[in-house]
């Protein structure tokens, strides 16, 4: 129900984080340069210092461009991730946009954009505005809200729209961490693997965030993420409704409930820490070490419900790097629950959420 009639199509922008254009040091350097100079991603450095540090040191070293004789860390990982279809994050994003457009039909105009690199938000938004859409619905491909991801997407959209003479109706989707259809796809994907009881333990591993950012995002100041033992963000209320950590715990609870998992069978943990500051705890890597060394765990099942498609952080970081460490500590195998990717049930879930929001 809208306050005015809509003429023309409704625009939809599906936005994910972004990925390098190619698995080469130059492209990875460009990607990391844009990503890590975002003040919502590294939020504790003055602008000029962030530019110098990221573009002069962090991105060149991480991408390997600073050392022409050795392929750098992130570039090597992207080379392992790359498939004949390119980066999975972009490949599945493109399929999602195409299928969502097909399901929504003529009433809608749908585009995929990436917060960093390509296709850019600027180019996709321009296409929608040029098509004369009556509204734009921004649908970030992050089920849980974080200032560094969803917040940054929304800020970039608002920055671009603020320059327009004609600003259409705008809908900004914040999060969908408990969407029943999304929860069911993750749960069904685990069920389809068969034998949940055969696993020694189940991990729900989310992308981490610096504790500093979690504190800013949760006025309740409960520090639930500082050591992973406090339980104040293990329920969502008005005060912590946008807390990333609280939303992650809520996603875990919903999947666990759908599967009927007892609480002692699973752990929520956080991965992909960058830098020297404390991030949300427990760290996935510490949880794996404890499970292997102290609890004698051999077979683990791992959900990655902060990501809607395969990406570096799932396929490579968990599937290869953590797997290797786990084996060194005496474990045998970490099975990854398949991501949502181009699953028709996930596509239907997105279509349904967009119909409600637009
Ligand atoms: C799912 C939500 C994500 C949050 C929250 C997030 C926060 C965050 N990330 C970094 C630094 C890096 N992240 C990198 C890769 C990456 N991150 C996400 C998602 C979230 N990040 C995705 C989907 C990906 C993979 C993209 C792909 O191409 O497959 C990387 C690049 C890889 C590397 O060099 O290690 C960095 C760097 C920070 C600092 C941060 C919060 C402050
Ligand atoms: Fe990240
Ligand atoms: Fe919290």
TrEMBL record:
Pathway: Porphyrin-containing compound metabolism; protoheme biosynthesis; protoheme from protoporphyrin-IX: step 1/1. PROSITE patterns: FERROCHELATASE. It is an enzyme of class 4 (lyase). Its EC number is 4.98.1.1. The keyword Amino-acid biosynthesis does not apply. It is found in: Cytoplasm. GO terms for molecular function: lyase activity. Pfam families: Ferrochelatase (PF00762). Keywords: Cytoplasm, Heme biosynthesis, Iron, Lyase, Metal-binding, Porphyrin biosynthesis. The keyword Metal-binding applies. InterPro entries: Ferrochelatase, Ferrochelatase_AS, Ferrochelatase_C, Ferrochelatase_N. Fe(2+) binds at residues 207, 313. It catalyses: heme b + 2 H(+) = protoporphyrin IX + Fe(2+); Fe-coproporphyrin III + 2 H(+) = coproporphyrin III + Fe(2+). Belongs to the ferrochelatase family. NCBIfam families: hemH. Catalyzes the ferrous insertion into protoporphyrin IX. This is Ferrochelatase. It comes from Neolewinella antarctica.
């Amino acid at each position: 129900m809208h306050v005015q009639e809509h003429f023309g199509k409704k625009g939809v922008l599906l936005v994910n984080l972004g990925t390098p254009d190619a698995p080469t040091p130059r492209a990875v350097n460009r990607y990391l340069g844009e990503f890590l100079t975002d003040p919502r991603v590294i939020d504790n450095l003055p602008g000029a210092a962030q530019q110098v540090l990221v573009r002069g040191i962090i991105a060149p070293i991480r991408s390997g461009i600073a050392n022409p004789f050795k392929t750098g860390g992130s570039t090597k990982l992207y080379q392992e991730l790359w498939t004949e279809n390119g980066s999975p994050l972009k490949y599945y994003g493109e399929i999602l946009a195409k299928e969502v457009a097909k399901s929504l039909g003529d009433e809608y105009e749908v585009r995929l954009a990436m917060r960093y690199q390509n296709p850019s938000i600027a180019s996709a938004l321009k296409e929608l505005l040029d098509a004369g859409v009556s509204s734009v619905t921004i649908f970030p491909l992050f089920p849980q809200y974080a200032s560094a991801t969803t917040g940054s997407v929304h800020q970039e959209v608002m920055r671009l729209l603020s320059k327009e003479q004609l600003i259409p109706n705008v809908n900004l989707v914040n999060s969908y961490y408990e969407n029943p259809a999304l929860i069911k796809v993750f749960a069904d994907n685990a069920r389809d693997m068969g034998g949940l009881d055969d696993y020694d333990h189940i991990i729900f591993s989310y992308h981490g965030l610096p504790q500093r950012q979690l504190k800013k995002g949760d006025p309740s100041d409960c520090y639930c993420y500082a050591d992973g033992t406090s339980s104040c963000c293990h329920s969502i209320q008005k005060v912590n409704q946008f807390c990333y950590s609280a939303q992650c715990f809520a996603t875990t609870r919903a999947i666990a409930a759908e599967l009927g998992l007892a609480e002692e069978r699973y752990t929520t943990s956080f991965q992909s820490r960058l830098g020297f500051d404390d991030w949300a705890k427990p760290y996935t890597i510490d949880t794996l070490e404890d499970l292997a060394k102290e609890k004698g765990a051999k077979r683990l099942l791992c959900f990655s419900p902060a990501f809607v498609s395969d990406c570096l952080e799932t396929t490579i970081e968990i599937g290869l790097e953590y797997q290797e460490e786990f084996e060194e500590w005496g474990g045998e195998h970490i099975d990854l629950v398949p991501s949502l990717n181009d699953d028709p049930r996930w596509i239907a879930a997105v279509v349904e959420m967009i119909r409600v929001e637009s």
